[in-house]
Amino acid sequence: MKFRTLGAVAIAAVVAVLIRAIYFTPIEALQGAAQKILYVHAPSAWVAFLAFGLVAVASALYLWLRDPRLDYFAESSAEIGLVFTTAVLLTGPLWGKPIWGTYWTWDARLTLTLFLWFVYVGYVILRGAVDDRDMRARYSAVIGILGAALIPFIHLSVYLFRTLHPMPVLMKPSSPSMPPEMTITLVSAFLAFTVLYVWLLRERYQLALDRAAASVVEYDR
Amino acid sequence: MTIPDNAFWYHAAYAVVVVVYAGYAVSIWWRRRAVARRIASHGTR
User: Per-residue pLDDT averaged across A1-24, rounded?
Assistant: First the structure.
């Protein structure tokens, strides 16, 4: 599949999910229409965790194999994970305000997610601050691995601590605790956002390769 | 029991998501174009 085609598929899938969520998914009786934020909030969180998990895998492999392509992959996935975490941190308060009565509360899940965001902001800043390619790759690999260690704690924080944040409705051992129409929309959103991640990752990885090629061209002159 | 009228919040959240992801996709395209121009300018000298 050409990646321009993949981009079209990703955009079409996300648009289709938003249309289904807005027009063809029932409104939840207790929370009202604000509950529909779930269909962009939870899939964004899933993609962020997937992206940071893959950063950790690629970073560990880089420290072992020292292949710069693994560093470029980790850099690309980290940046995309940061963008999806930003979306999570923006949509969460927009959901919290009408339901909890506040945009933000310093409970375990929200605070850990904000901490995760800061860790990967640091990752991106570090990459811009270190000129030596090998040193930059090694330092950022360590941060990439340590940052991803937060993900299990964030997912389990609603079980470990008393928190305002609701329990998972889909990613849990028992069956989904939603009506089928809502579950189909949510699962579709998870798939569509994952395709969006794959497309963005491919494009961002190509940018990293192009930058490496450009630096070689400039060095050779 | 009446269903709360709070559609504004999910409209705002969907708009935020579209702006964030579309903005990021455009930023990748912009940066790739800048790098391609850099490479091209070195090749034609």
Answer: 91
> Looking at chain B, which residue has its C-alpha nearest residue A206?
B32
Contacts of B21 in chain A (CB under 8 A): 14, 83, 87, 196
> In Å, how far is A36's CA from the nearest CA of chain B?
6
For residue range A73-109, what is the model confidence (pLDDT) as tens digits?
999 999 999 999 999 999 999 999 999 999 999 999 9
Q: What is the ipTM of this complex?
A: 0.92
Contact A40, A89 (CB under 8 A): no
Q: What average pLDDT does this structure show over A2-21?
A: 92
Q: Which residues of A touch B (CB under 8 A)?
A: 7, 14, 18, 21-22, 27, 29, 31-37, 40-41, 44, 80, 83, 86-87, 90-91, 94-95, 97-98, 196, 200, 203-204, 206-207, 210-211, 213-214, 217-218, 221
Mean pLDDT in residue range A166-191? 85
CB contacts < 8 A, A to B, total 97
| Residue A219 pLDDT | 64
Taking the CA of residue A38 and the nearest CA in chain B, the distance in Å comes to: 9
